[in-house]
Amino acid sequence: MSLLQKSFALALVSAATFVAATPMPVVTPAPVFPDLASIEKRANSSCTFTDAAAASASKTSCATIVLSGITVPSGTTLDMTGLTDGTAVIFEGTTTWEYEAWSGPLFSVSGKDIAVSGATGHVLDGNGAKWWDGKGSNGGVTKPKFFYAHSLTGSSSIKGLNVLNTPVQAFSVNSATGLTLDSITIDNSAGDTGSLGHNTDAFDVGSSSGITISNANVKNQDDCLAINSGTDITFTGGTCSGGHGLSIGSVGGRSDNTVSGINIASSSVTASANGVRIKTVSGATGTVSNVTYSDIKLSGITSYGIVIQQDYKNGSPTGTPTTGVPITDLTLSSITGTVSSSATNVYILCGSSSCSSWTWTGVSVTGGKASTACSGIPSAGGAAC
Ligand SMILES: *[C@@H]1O[C@H](CO)[C@@H](O)[C@H](O)[C@H]1NC(C)=O
Ligand SMILES: *[C@@H]1O[C@H](CO)[C@@H](O)[C@H](O)[C@H]1NC(C)=O
Question: Could you name the active-site residues (predicted)?
Answer without folding.
Answer: 244
